[in-house]
Design a protein that fits this description.
The protein is an alpha+beta fold. About 50% of the residues lie in helices and about 20% in strands. The chain has 5 helices and 7 strands. Strands 1, 2, 3, 4, 5, 6 and 7 form a 7-stranded mixed β-sheet that branches. α1 packs parallel to α3. The longest helix is centred in the C-terminal third of the chain and has 37 residues. The chain is globular, with a radius of gyration of 20 Å.
């Protein structure tokens, strides 16, 4: 069975659209359908709900409530696991009615979670509201912050090593040309 990105995109877009009542369609193009809530996160950024994107290798379905809800993460059906990339992304190359029904159910549950947390109400959200939602979902915001800081340090070390390697290679190139 071949790739059919346009049909997969159209079907996934409709799923996200059905569950975005009262939210803002941030982008709606033939390759990007992004929905944000009317709530504003602490850094004056919109709180994202979901997105469907066409990439080179797949159509991706992003469901952001998965960040705030380990119980919802645990509810991801086994059939969807091979398509999962990261915490919130699922990849598809063609429509699949059975998998798309499972995506629809996850999206419905994600919306319910956002409603319970007050994330669909217009206006600013406090850092405390987000942390409360994370704790209610079984996450530790301090641990998440530590993990992000560690990943940032690891990335900086890796960048420094790459730059050092490039500088060394450039030096060897100059020696050869002499």
């Amino acid at each position: 069975m071949g790739k059919d990105f346009s049909s997969a995109f159209a079907a996934l877009r409709e799923i996200l659209k059905r569950h975005s009542d009262g939210m803002i369609v941030h982008v709606d193009t033939p390759s990007d359908f992004t929905v944000i809530t009317r709530a504003i996160a602490p850094q004056n950024r919109p709180l994202w709900f979901g997105a469907v994107l066409v990439t080179k290798s797949a159509v991706t379905y992003h469901l952001y409530p998965l960040y705030f809800n380990p119980a919802l993460q645990a509810a991801v059906p086994a059939a969807l696991e091979p398509r999962k990339q990261g915490k919130t992304c699922f990849n598809f190359q063609r429509p699949d009615a059975e998998l798309f029904a499972q995506i629809e159910d996850l999206t419905r549950l994600g919306r319910l979670h956002y409603e319970r947390c007050g994330f669909l109400k217009p206006g600013p959200l406090s850092q405390e509201q987000l942390e409360t939602a994370l704790r209610a979902g079984g996450e530790d915001s301090a641990a998440i912050a530590r993990q992000r800081k560690l990943k940032g340090k690891q990335a900086a070390v890796k960048r420094a090593a790459t730059l050092k390697k490039k500088k060394k290679a450039a030096g060897r190139g100059r020696e050869k040309s002499k």
